[in-house]
Each structure stands twice: as C-alpha cells, then as structure tokens.
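Standup notes
- HV: blocked on the assembly model, inputs below
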Amino acid sequence: MITVNTEAYPWHSGMTVRSLLDEKVFTFRHIIVRVNGEYVPEEDYENFAIQDEDEVVVLHLMAGG
Amino acid sequence: MKRYLRNHDAISETEQSRLAEKHVLVVGCGGLGGMLIECLARIGVGHLRVVDGDLFDETNLNRQLLSSTMNLNRPKTLAAQQRVMAVNPLVKVEAFQTLLTEENAGDLLFGCDVALDALDNIPARLLLQQAAKAANIPLVHAAVAGWIGQVCVIQPGQDLLNLLYPNSNEMQGEEQESGTLSFTAAVTASWQAAETVKLLLGKSGLEGEVLQIDLLTSSVNKVKLI
C-alpha cells in the first residue's frame, strides 16, 4: 500500500510515477510530484519506480490570482 | 460598537481590539486580493497596505470584486482604497500602485504583522516569500486556477513556496489553460482571510501543509508539505 496525498492506494509491482498518474486519472497538465519528499521532474515520470509504502504527493501547479 | 456586533463571540471584544491594531500587507488587488481586502476590512483589521501596479481591464470583470464597468483603466489600488473607505472607514488603507520588486519589497513589508500573497505569477510570489522571510513575518499564500484553489501559511524560513513551485523559471501554472473563476477566487481568498485572522489572533491554523480546494469535485484536502 502507498499513500497518495492523504489517501491509501494499493501498490503493485512495476508501478511508476507515470502509471500511477494514469491510474488515478490525474489529467491536469501542470502538476508537481514528490515521492518521499523528493521532487520528481516530469521527464522522469516514466522511469521513476514507486516502491511499496512510498508516500506520494501530487499537487496542482497553480499561480492565478 | 454595532459595526462589529455580528463578529461576536466568534471574535471576542478583546480580539476585536487586537485586530484593530494589526497591519496587513496585501500584494495583488485582483481576484484574490479584492476579496481578501473586503473580508479583512469588514472584520476590522485596522491597517491595510495594498499593492498592485495594474489597471482594471475587461478580462477582470468575470471575477475581480473590485472591478466594474465604471472603473476600467483605473488603478486597482485606488478601487481598493475607495472600497474600504465605503465599507469601513475605521480601517486605514495605504495604497501603492506599483509592482513588487526586490528594491521596494523591504519598505512595503516594513511594520506589517503578516504579508498576503494574492499575486498572479510565480516569480513575484517567490520574491514576496523571500521578503517576508527577511522581515521575519509570516506569509499567507493563495493561488487559483479554474475550479481549484490552494492556501498555505508560511512561517519565516519554511520556504513552502519552493515546494509548490519547484521550477522558479516558470511564470504560471494550470490557470493558463483553465482560466480563473469568480467563486474559486472568492472561496480561496475567504479561506486565506480566515487563516490570516487566526494568525493575527494567535489561533492555530494551517501548519506546514497546503490546503487544496476543488470546487468541481466538491472536495477539500490538506496535504502535508513538511
């Protein structure tokens, strides 16, 4: 099991940031991903492996006022 | 005083007197800033310093409380000042029609108890965070895009905006695609105002976390940042 923001989410072998975003249907174009506090740049989404019990934070990147 | 009768006892009379002595800097008088200024003036924060270099244009009318068809091409700070005078003349307003810069940030923050980020671009937000840290005062941040908004309370040195905006060379975020809606700005700024009043009164509020509001899915989440 991993944590995505405040919710528990089932982990599976081979999970990457990209596959998680697809599963969770995070469709916004501007997002920030951190895994265990480490910022993951967009170019690394495909290859960044998520391990069981990781804490993943996915935030919208917004700056409008 | 009847003006504040409906504030009580959510705000005690002692707390009301304390609010009257507080100085708050609001940077940005647009969608977030207009609503913030409205809330803070009505609740009785005594001193507001409002900063914005822009004039109103037609694209502001969908959401910016202080804008109207009567004040297009006029300074946003002037509208803020006039609005506060009309709503609560007990509140003293200092208006600065200027952009926040490295050069003027220190002077603008001088003497303030808290700084409020109601800006509309990432570099200016990061500059304000740096200035608030240098002035050793908390910063209450808010931002919006379409149906979503976020609020964050940043104590000096926490630098939480660095976590929300990891690429400081970016100017904007999701709002480029999704725009900004009236109710999103109003809800988010109202929450920002509530966190500000709690800070000013020493009540506990958001700590090391970002509040994310999604009006499309009717959800609110607090996500731990540190």
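- HV (later): unblocked. Chain A has a mean pLDDT of 95. Helices of chain A lie at 17-23.
- Next: hand off to the docking folks.
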